[in-house]
Amino acid sequence: MNRTVEELAPEFDEFTIVEAAKNGNQRALSDLYEYFFPKVYRYVAARLGNTADAEDVTEEIFLRVIRNIQSFSWRGLPFGAWVFRIARNEVVSHVRREKTWSATTELTETIPDLSADHVTVIEFEFTMQSVREATEKLPEAQRQVIALRFGAGLSVAETAQSLKKTENNVKVLQHKAIAKLQQLVRFE
């Protein structure tokens, strides 16, 4: 029985669930996956901009989490910070691997219907692509903050913990990134 994040959140006792997962409890592993998957997927999708790649990379992230959970130790940071460190490293590795392969265009099985109903969808996709391209022009620290804050939906505190920065530093990086994005992305 799969439970939604909303059902998990009120009762999500991170320490107890992580310790149970470290001891091989399959239900605890499932709960961790269900709780963290949406945030990790949004983070990866925001960084990569390609749903197929985001799905593959997110799957690899959770395989690494499962393989390495027994080595996780509490060092004053939440388990989520450890998960997002793995996510960040996997995204960086994926981008490096992709740069070594020639760029390919994803083929679609259908021809898009450009009727009036789809204009909004196309405009949204164009806007998101423009924002992704502009985000790639930001310094790495600002890109990380934007991806974690808006892609994964993490709080300032969670973002700070994941990046090993202070909350004030995250706020400054976020402010500078948004200001720069406003300069880079101009819509008429």
Name the CATH superfamily assignment of the largest domain. Answer: RNA polymerase sigma factor, region 2, helix turn helix motif
Topology-level CATH name of the largest domain: Rna Polymerase Sigma Factor, Chain: A
Count the E strands. 0
Strand content: under 5%
The helical percent reads 55-70%
Distance between the termini: 48 Å
Bulk shape:
globular
Q: Overall mean pLDDT score?
A: 79
List unreliable stretches of 5+ residues. Answer: 3-8
Can you describe what's shown?
Helices cover 70% and strands 0% of the residues. By secondary structure, it is mainly alpha-helical. The chain folds into two domains: 1-103, Rna Polymerase Sigma Factor, Chain: A, CATH 1.10.1740; 113-188, Arc Repressor Mutant, subunit A, CATH 1.10.10. Helix 3 runs antiparallel to helix 4 and helix 5 (79-100) packs across helix 8 (156-163). The model is unreliable at 3-8 (pLDDT under 50).
Topology (SSEs and partners):
Elements lengths: L4 H4 L5 H9 L3 H23 L2 H18 L10 H22 L18 H17 L4 H12 L4 H8 L3 H18 L4
Question: What would the keywords be for this entry?
Answer:
188 residues; mainly alpha; Rna Polymerase Sigma Factor, Chain: A; Arc Repressor Mutant, subunit A; 70% helix; globular; disordered N terminus
Short synopsis of the structure:
The chain is an all-alpha fold and 188 residues long. It has helices at 5-8, 14-22, 26-48, 51-68, 79-100, 119-135, 140-151, 156-163, 167-184.
